[in-house]
Amino acid sequence: MEQGNIIAALATPPGKGGIAIIRVSGAGAIEHVARIFKGKTDLTVCPSHTVHYGKIWNNEQVLDEVLVTVMRAPHTFTGEDTAEINCHGSGAAVREILSLLLDNGARMAGRGEFTKRAFLNGRMDLSQAEAVMDVIQAESNSALTAAVNQLEGKLSAQIRQLRETLLHQYATVQAEADFPEEGLSGIDETAMLAEFQRVYSALNRLKSSAKTGRLVKQGIQTVLCGTPNAGKSSLLNALVGENRAIVTEVPGTTRDCIEEYVELEKCTLRLLDTAGIRETDDKVEQIGVDRAKESMEQADLVLFVADCSRQPCADDHEICGAIIDKPVILVLNKQDVTQGSEEAYRALLPTAPFVAVSAKEKQGLETLASIICELFQMGEVQDGQQALITNMRHVEAVQRAAAALDEVVRTMETGMPVDMVFVDLQDAISALGEVTGETVQEEVVDRIFSEFCVGK
Ligand SMILES: Nc1nc2c(ncn2[C@@H]2O[C@H](COP(=O)(O)OP(=O)(O)OP(=O)(O)O)[C@@H](O)[C@H]2O)c(=O)[nH]1
Ligand SMILES: [Mg+2]
Predict the structure, then answer these.
(1) Using an 8 Å Cβ cutoff, are 266 and 378 in contact?
(2) Is 429 within 8 Å of 435 (Cβ atoms)?
(3) Is residue 125 part of a domain?
(4) Does residue 3 carry a pLDDT above 50?
């Protein structure tokens, strides 16, 4: 690779910090850094994966004291020679060192270019490269686990195995079509059909993991709803562990929706506190009520908060009527001052799981958490055994593969000659290859990496 192919970028966030890391990659990258570095070691001959103290010089001027990590191809992230300069995290140091590297012939890395090189150099496949971004963006423990699993290649391995099976069958069908006179009809169509059916069910299982995948990646969109003063904001504060939302004894305190991430043992909630729902003449409160209703419709889970210090009112009836078909948990709040209205509330949501809590005394919260996790069965995500689809591009490709394979199965079941399945089988194979990147178009690859950050 010629000199023009050396790329450099700041890999740590811009702004002041203890240290900043400037990454340089490409054939000649180590020599490139060695030219501006003076220390005890000669970077061009030192062993790979070693760290060296020294100074970065611009002519006669010292720009910074640094540590340089030298990593030689092919065992690096990009698969190329790489040097990482750990300098001080000052805007000036980073700027000066980077421009020196660029003046000497390196080029500023584009978004995701390091990872793109890793993909193009066969260090990882496309779904693994996409996982790099998911790891960086993970907001919760479970999202991180899912992303790391994908980065380690759990999804790729499964997709690749299914694709291999199809390729093997494809070769068999092709041999039959190419040399019919040899009476290859050694083809065992029953066994072949069974294989296709097996792959089809595996694809469907993967497809259905996408819902969990979304919940893991983005968090379960959970809406607290109920009448004013039921204790929704108090419950949000209790679950978040800080006084995030304003709580008062005045009904209609919350107007705007407030969102917080809440990490439970096995899942993460994007928890939304909303305005208490009631008839109101107050213009601002009415907007809050409308927003509350809207977010209830979009929710993955509704927590209906019931004020057990009183009996259900007309507004409680109305809200429950609106959410009865949604995944909902009845939260019987204010247990510390209950008036025994639990049964009356349960009659409003007869099939919903329920839990007695006191947001004020922080009681019953663990039971609430375990009901939520049970409802979404996220336990197996944590143990990392099951490959999980968390990416819309993968869902779409797997869906297409499954649809094409469904056609294959149908054609065979109607007793058509086996070479009639060629086109559909090819489609299925190619769709699966898109996930791992074997058959993906260049524009798609470019689009994927353009969503990355610079320096990764
Ligand atoms: N005793 C008791 N009081 C509670 C409990 N939870 C909330 N409250 C009180 O109920 C009142 C209303 O609480 P909020 O959390 O503001 O209720 P809300 O549902 O957010 O009300 P709006 O924002 O007006 O819709 C406050 O005075 C809280 O202290 C509880 O578990 N026990
Ligand atoms: Mg409130």
Answers:
(1) yes
(2) no
(3) no
(4) no
pLDDT digit string (tens) for 196-243? 999 999 999 999 889 888 888 889 999 999 999 999 999 999 999 999
The reply to whether 206 and 229 lie within a common domain is: no
181 DSSP assignment: G
**pTM score of the predicted model:** 0.78
| List of residues 6+ apart from 6 with CB closer than 8 A | 24, 25, 26, 27, 28, 29, 32, 105, 106, 107
Cite the DSSP H helix spans in 77-125: 91-103, 113-120
Three-class secondary structure of residue 356 per DSSP? strand
Among 234, 240, 316, which is best to mutate for testing ligand 1, by the most ligand atoms less than 8 A from CB? 234
79 within a domain of the structure (yes/no): yes
Query: Token pair 């949501």 is at which residue?
Result: 349
Question: Mapping DSSP to helix (H, G, I), strand (E, B) and coil, where does residue 25 land?
Answer: strand
Same structural domain for residues 357 and 434? Answer: no
Q: Sheet harboring 17-25: ordered strands across?
A: 37-39, 50-58, 61-71, 82-89, 17-25, 7-10, 107-108
Please name the residue whose Cα sits nearest to atom 21 of ligand 1: 229
Strands ordered across the beta sheet of 354-356: 258-263, 268-273, 220-225, 301-307, 328-333, 354-356
Six-digit token pair at 163?
């694709």
Contact residues of ligand 1, CB 6 A cut-off: 226, 228-234, 247-249, 251-254, 275-276, 333-334, 336-337, 358-360
CB of 420 closer than 8 Å to CB of 176: no
189-218 and 392-413 helices cross at what angle (nearest 10)?
160
pLDDT digits 0-9 by tens, 67-84? 999 999 999 999 999 999
Domain count, the chain: 3
d(CA 78, CA 156): 19
Q: At 63, which CATH number? A: 3.30.1360.120
CA–CA dist 76, 82 (Å, integer):
7
3-state secondary structure of 48: coil
Structural domain contains residue 121: no
Atom of ligand 1 nearest to the CA of 249: 27
Domain that holds residue 314: 219-382
Residues 369 and 234 in one domain: yes
* Per-residue DSSP letter, 70: E
- Give backbone dihedrals phi and psi of 153, rounded to 5 degrees, phi first: 100, 20
Same domain for 102 and 141:
no
